[in-house]
Amino acid sequence: MEDNRTSDIGLINEKIQKESAFVDLLTLEMNKVIVGQKHMVERLLIGLLAQGHILLEGVPGLAKTLSINTLAKAVHGSFSRIQFTPDLLPADVVGTMIYNIKENDFSIKKGPIFANFVLADEINRAPAKVQSALLEAMQEKQVTIGDETFILDKPFLVMATQNPVEQEGTYPLPEAQVDRFMLKTVIDYPKLDEEQLIIRANLKGAFEHVNPVVSLEQILRAQQAVREVYMDEKIEKYILDIIFATRYPEKYKLSDIKPLINFGASPRGSINLASAAKCYAFIKRRGYVIPEDVRAVVHDVLRHRIGITYEAEAENITSVDIINKIVNEVEVP
């Protein structure tokens, strides 16, 4: 029985190595334009492979727009950017019915949501009505305009950005809506030597041309292949232990963090953690998940799914500090 399982894992491993060959090619192509930001590029690939969506937080000027635009070019997909503003309407995102005087009838004008890669820039600048229109499209992968329903193109990846600096005149995303993002990635400034390269490239004005190196069909095949990545029962248990430790810390010898947690991760957290771990293994060209894969993605999957109390805020403790404590305490298989 053990031999059969080992040979099965061997076959899966071979298949994944073959299917994931494009990852290096795609990363190389993106690195022509994106300097550093390896973490962000990896997270974009995880979101794309897992059919999830990403919320990016970082100060302006850290290549958030450039990254998703470059990914769209390298994958030969369509790209659209929506700048969220306080006066934006849901119709500006999904589309609307337009009256045609000549034909005395209504025609449908599709909105920018109809693209493979959608950048929702500064999502917290728009009111809740617009945010929910976008989030519904993300969740259902379809849009209804008038009495017609349209299925969105595949692959479909939304990258929403929010600026943590200016909070005046913003509409913070409610917890229930933030939960719909598979990953929340916080990006930081580039390193000194990386920024030097950025300055040089900008002053020259000579940006490398990004070529389409991967087809949409390859991405869709990879999305299916990711599901086949082997995950042992022990890894599943490890993921569940991490999630349950956010809900019932006292059961995991973490009673000291109980007063700091307002609410723990939802079942979406466990689904997305398992899915992201499989994608991370795929990117590393492995057909099976190891505990390091889970630990590599746990912060991005859970940082927006743990509510902290006023007590935690008063002590300057963030959800990331809580995740660190949990990961260090929960037994690794």
From TrEMBL:
Annotated ATPase AAA-3 domain ranges read 53-183
As one GO molecular function, the record gives:
ATP binding
Q: What range(s) does the ChlI/MoxR AAA lid domain occupy?
A: 257-326
Which Pfam family, any one, appears in the UniProt record?
AAA_3
**Which keywords does the record carry?**
ATP-binding, Nucleotide-binding
* Similarity comment text for this entry: Belongs to the MoxR family.
Which PANTHER family does the UniProt record give?
A: MAGNESIUM-CHELATASE SUBUNIT CHLD (PTHR42759:SF1), MOXR FAMILY PROTEIN (PTHR42759)
- Under which name does UniProt file this protein? MoxR family ATPase
Native source species: Sinomicrobium pectinilyticum
